[in-house]
Design a protein that fits this description.
Chain lengths: 642, 458
């Protein structure tokens, strides 16, 4: 290892800070004051953010292009030794900025949000541990590091979903998330094994260089990428492993914002972007990803239309948006996918925190059937929510518009039919978000009047982060201008070094500027009409109000299907959960009867032998002498005869 | 050699203390003296000089085992003053006996002549007979001394018989000459029979079954501090002597003895662990645990080579260190309750958490759970036994250690379950006990994390 450079020390400190915060809050948090815990918890992440900014500015000033920090030899496997090493390149820098930036905002927000909870210090300890694991994930220079971070964030997700562990439903949701992720992890691990057996190394740079020798669509590349994608399906909630994410909303809202919207769920996308060369070599996998992604995007969007829990709507929206990102990945447009990862992190975190503000103001009410007309009572939260809604709906020039438009344009260039599907999805997105906005803030208040009398906006520690996120949601898209404007796409240029070799491998269809403009105009017009109808006229209010009620005989079959989430949970229960429970009960019987019986029997037998052996301890010298002499005789016989 | 002279001088000094009236200072003098002796001992490292016309050979084996004996002796001396406040006896005379016992142990690990070996073993034995009876007004102590003496005398005759037979075959007491004779091949029957008797006599000394009957009674009846010396110093000396004898001179006879070894080892392992299972007295439990541990150590004798001796040394140190911890806490409890019942450990963790932690480490080490020294001790011994082709014995040893987990963990569990009968306040912990416990606990953990420090020193 060469001498420790500035980049090395910055990177190491960056990762070490959240770990330090976790240790302090986890070990001593109980004895520290709440403001201390909050300051440490947020301070370390903010510090990590500042260090990320430092790294970023070093990169932009050309101090390095891609840098590996080797700390120590970690896992020796045969001839290969996985190092504990960090890889800093544009892709990890982007993720660093998002994770620590959005992360520190959410930490600050949490100080106010979770303040009354007795598990305050535990919450911050878990959040810090999460950030630490996430940093391992995005900075790891090899698959084992990525996997360690991957499992670490999974653990934190589990701990935080079940944060209010006294509620049995919440712990069940935590378990569901964990188990479903294990299924994905199995695929992911098998993928890593296959990488190792194919290339004999697990370092990203070496694997990607070696992969270039494989040739397009070799079975190994397809196998590896498919297996790795199974991992991504679990972590990033794609069909068929998406049902855990809506349930994960049981966790405190900042957790939903940080882990289950902005950062952890994008780990699958990061992984694919990291392995872009492998994926570019496996077009079959890319087609598969596209299909899964578009199906997920549409499925989740339709479900979101009839959800009545404010966080569930947002959760399904997240699943659907993740589908959009994967669709871009499936087209080989890795940078476009990552662009949506970034803008989505801004506006979805904003929306979740806004939803948290609503819930907090209403003392825990999450059912939008019990809300309405809050626009003038919590005006600040309303404005925040409005910005988020318009951003996710894709109204120009908000950030969501740029990234989503880029995805739509890419898809159109590949396949206009898929474009129609995704456009439908976008309209659904705009519709369910407007429905949510309208039902919460417009019309008449439908809930308990006792609550509404004391209604007011939240304290400032909760509001400042929202303002920052709102600004980012508005301007965040400007780094990635559409191609036809010829302003240069800063985002693509930034990520270019990472995707250079895969871009060379993949065919790229470019849209004619007029086509792109026409498509964009169509999308904007449709979305704009919806917004106009929903917010400026009262035309949609009836539909919105009726959508709250999906029970009863007269409900159309498709409404029922959507509001019941296509019965996916029920199907999984019948197909997997109940049979495993039955097997488990049967095994439990085997365990209690056969295994325990055998073990206890052995125990009793041992006790019996023990009594026998102690029984020879008669306490008389003569007796001992006799026994010992017999022993000598016996051994002598063995010695002479044997 | 310097260590032996210094140790004998210290023994005489203790006796003089009784006569010239500086008994109060004896303890401090001995601590300083033993530390000096330790330094003198390790100055002999890598010198390999023979003394008294080849009666003794002070090689690295001797230095290492002597070091272990001296350290255990130091621990006993440190823990003694508080014990002698409770037990009415002559303090400096007891120290003198302890030092003579250690001197005997030193001879046993550095002899190169069978006559010197016999002198060493007798010096050690006679001192331990007397020590067993130190608590003069206690009937059990007297009983222990008498039992030990009578049975010991009986077995000394076996030892002499064996030595005589080996002499008859090889024509010399000198280890090198015996080795030269025995490697020639075409050995006389006397040689085998002599080895057989010597083996049995040593089996008695290390409390191997079926010659272990004395051990539970003597360990239990002796004053606790003496039991500690017996289960550490005597054990190191006896196994050191056996290892030296077999690996230096008698190893050609080992193959023909393999069935005997198998029976002795398996029986010792089983009797020790099964016996310990029934005990309610912690002291008696440790006595049986001593028997079981002798079984593991026997595994290290079979291979009779240098690597096995190293494994043996490692295990002896790991076992002694854990035993010293356990006895130190047992002594503390016995000052409080006047008996050695294992029930007194109940709820110890609530009032004396650090003490409970020390006992936990000690029990984990005795049970052979990582990351403690005991784990690697067992691991090295098992490896040696497998290398020597005794896989079946290792299976028995593993079964025995599974059983042992029950009684070691019973103590740990008892300590961590709050109990209404437990002491309302923390157990009084004198300064020296604190020092000893800290050192033994850290050693147990350190050897469990960096076993390589001691793994290849011979």
């Amino acid at each position: 290892m060469n001498s420790f450079s500035t980049i090395d020390s910055l990177t190491t400190a960056l990762v070490a800070l959240p770990l330090l915060g976790f240790l302090i809050n986890g070990l001593m948090g109980q004895r520290l004051s709440k403001s201390m815990v909050g300051a440490i918890g947020s301070g370390v992440v903010l510090g990590a953010f500042l260090l990320s900014c430092g790294l970023m500015s070093m990169y932009l000033s050309g101090a390095f292009e891609s840098h590996t920090t080797n700390l120590f030899a970690w896992l020796p496997i045969g001839d290969y030794t996985a190092k504990f090493a960090f890889l800093v390149d544009p892709l990890s820098l982007l993720m660093l900025m998002v994770v620590t930036g959005v992360g520190s905002l959410i930490h600050i927000y949490s100080i106010g949000y979770i303040h009354e909870d007795e598990g305050f210090y535990k919450f911050f300890a878990y959040l810090n541990l999460f950030i630490f694991s996430m940093l391992l994930l995005v900075l790891g220079a090899n698959f084992p590091m990525l996997f360690a971070g991957w499992e670490g964030v999974g653990l934190c997700s589990y701990l935080l979903i079940g944060f209010w562990y006294k509620n049995a439903d919440y712990t069940a949701a935590a378990q569901k998330a964990f188990v479903m992720n294990r299924i994905g992890d199995l695929g992911f691990l098998l993928g890593i094994f296959l990488v190792f057996s194919t290339f004999g190394t697990l370092d990203f740079t070496d694997v990607m260089n070696a992969a270039l020798q494989l040739g397009t669509d070799s079975p190994v590349a397809v196998g590896i990428t498919l297996l790795l994608f199974v991992g991504a399906m679990g972590k990033s909630a794609q069909l068929p492993l998406f049902t855990w994410l809506p349930d994960a909303m049981a966790g405190p809202t900042p957790v939903s914002a940080l882990i289950h919207a902005a950062t952890m769920v994008t780990a699958g996308l990061y992984m694919i972007a990291r392995c872009n060369v492998l994926y570019a070599l496996a077009p079959t996998t890319l087609h598969f990803i596209t299909l899964i992604a578009i199906a997920t995007a549409l499925l989740a969007a339709t479900i979101a239309v009839f959800q009545n829990d404010i966080k569930k709507v947002l959760a399904y929206s997240t699943v659907s948006q993740l589908g959009y990102m994967f669709a871009a990945m499936g087209m080989g447009a890795f940078a476009t996918g990552m662009f949506h990862v970034m803008t989505h992190a801004f506006f979805k975190a904003l929306l979740f925190l806004g939803a948290g503000a609503v819930i907090h103001a209403l003392h825990g009410e999450q059912n939008i059937g019990q809300m309405g007309g809050l626009k003038n009572r919590i005006p600040f939260t309303y404005k925040i929510f409005l910005v988020g809604t318009l951003a996710v709906a894709g109204l120009p020039p908000l950030s969501g518009f740029f990234s989503k438009d880029e995805i739509l344009a890419t898809v159109f260039a590949h396949n206009p039919i898929l474009w129609v599907l995704l456009l439908l999805g976008s309209l659904l997105t705009a519709f369910y978000m407007l429905r949510l906005l309208w039902l919460v803030f417009y019309g008449e208040y439908r809930g308990n009047h006792h609550v509404v009398e004391h209604l007011h906006d939240n304290p400032n520690t909760m509001n400042y982060p929202l303002v920052v996120l709102a600004v980012l949601s508005v301007v965040g898209g400007f780094v990635g201008m559409p191609a036809f404007l010829h302003l240069g796409n800063a985002f693509h240029e930034f990520l270019e070094p990472v995707f250079a070799s895969s871009n060379a491998l993949l065919p790229h269809q470019h849209l004619h500027a007029t086509t792109e403009m026409a498509l964009m105009a169509l999308t904007v017009a449709l979305v704009g009409t919806l917004i106009y109808l929903a917010l400026f006229t009262d035309r949609l209010s009836g539909i919105f109000l009726r959508s709250l009620h999906t029970e009863g005989k007269n409900t159309a079959w498709w409404k029922k299907l959507w509001s019941k989430k296509y019965y996916v949970d029920e199907i999984y229960d019948t197909l997997f959960v109940s049979p495993s429970r039955m097997v488990s009960r049967a095994l439990h019987q085997v365990d209690t009867q056969l295994v325990d019986g055998t073990v206890n029997g052995l125990g009793h037998l041992t006790a019996l032998f023990s009594q026998m052996s102690v029984a020879t301890q008669i306490g008389k010298i003569g007796g001992y002498m006799l026994l010992m002499s017999l022993g000598v005789l016996g051994l002598l016989l063995v010695f002479v005869l044997g | 050699m310097k260590a032996l002279i210094s140790l004998s001088a210290l023994a005489i000094l203790s006796l003089a203390g009784e006569i010239f009236g500086f008994k109060r200072q004896t303890n401090v003098l001995l601590i300083i003296g033993l530390l000096v002796t330790l330094v003198l001992n390790f100055m002999d490292w890598n010198t390999n000089i023979s003394y008294f016309s080849n009666m003794m050979q002070y090689d690295n084996f001797s230095v290492a085992f002597t070091g272990a004996i001296l350290l255990c002796g130091l621990a006993v001396v440190l823990l003694s003053p508080h014990f002698f406040k409770v037990v009415e006896t002559s303090e400096s005379e007891s120290y003198a006996q302890l030092l003579f016992l250690m001197a005997g142990g030193l001879l046993m690990v550095s002899f190169s002549n069978l006559s010197m070996f016999f002198i060493g073993i007798e010096l050690l034995s006679i001192a331990s007979y007397i020590l067993a009876g130190t608590d003069k007004r206690n009937l059990y102590s007297n009983e222990a001394a008498l039992k030990y003496f009578l049975m010991g005398a009986f077995w000394s005759s076996f030892l002499l018989m064996g030595i005589a037979l080996v002499y008859a075959a090889a024509g010399s007491f000198d280890l090198a000459t015996i080795a030269a004779y025995s490697t020639k091949g075409n050995l006389s029957g006397y040689f085998y029979l002599g080895t057989f008797f010597i083996t049995l006599a040593l089996a008695f000394k290390v409390s191997a079954a079926p010659f272990h009957f004395w051990a539970p009674d003597v360990y239990d009846g002796s004053p606790t501090i003496v039991t500690l010396s017996m289960s550490t110093i005597v054990k190191i000396a006896a196994f050191g002597a056996a290892a030296r004898l077999f690996s230096y001179a008698l190893y050609p006879a080992m193959p023909s003895m393999s069935k005997i070894w198998w029976i002795l080892t398996a029986l010792t392992l089983l009797v020790g662990s099964l016996g310990a299972l029934q005990q309610t007295s912690f002291k008696r439990l440790l006595a049986y645990s001593g028997v079981a541990n002798a079984g593991y150590l026997l595994l290290g004798l079979i291979a009779a080579n240098n690597n096995a001796n190293n494994a043996l040394l490692f295990y002896l140190i790991a076992y002694s260190v854990a035993t010293i911890s356990a006895f130190a806490v047992l002594l503390l409890l016995s000052y409080k309750y006047d008996d050695e019942n294992g029930e007194h450990f109940k709820g110890l963790a609530t009032t004396s958490p650090w003490l409970a932690a020390a006992v936990t480490v000690s029990m984990l080490s005795l049970a052979g759970i990582p990351p403690t020294a005991g784990f690697f001790g067992k691991y090295y011994l098992f490896t040696q036994a497998i290398a020597a082709g005794h896989t079946s014995l290792v299976v028995v040893a593993i079964l025995s250690s599974i059983v042992s987990i029950v009684y070691y963990f019973r103590i740990i569990i008892n300590m961590y379950i709050p109990d209404e009968n437990s002491l309302p306040t923390a157990l009084e912990l004198p300064f020296v006990y604190k020092i000893v416990l800290i050192i033994t606990t850290i050693t147990s953990l350190a050897l469990g994390i960096y076993p390589s420090v001691l793994a290849n020193i011979l």
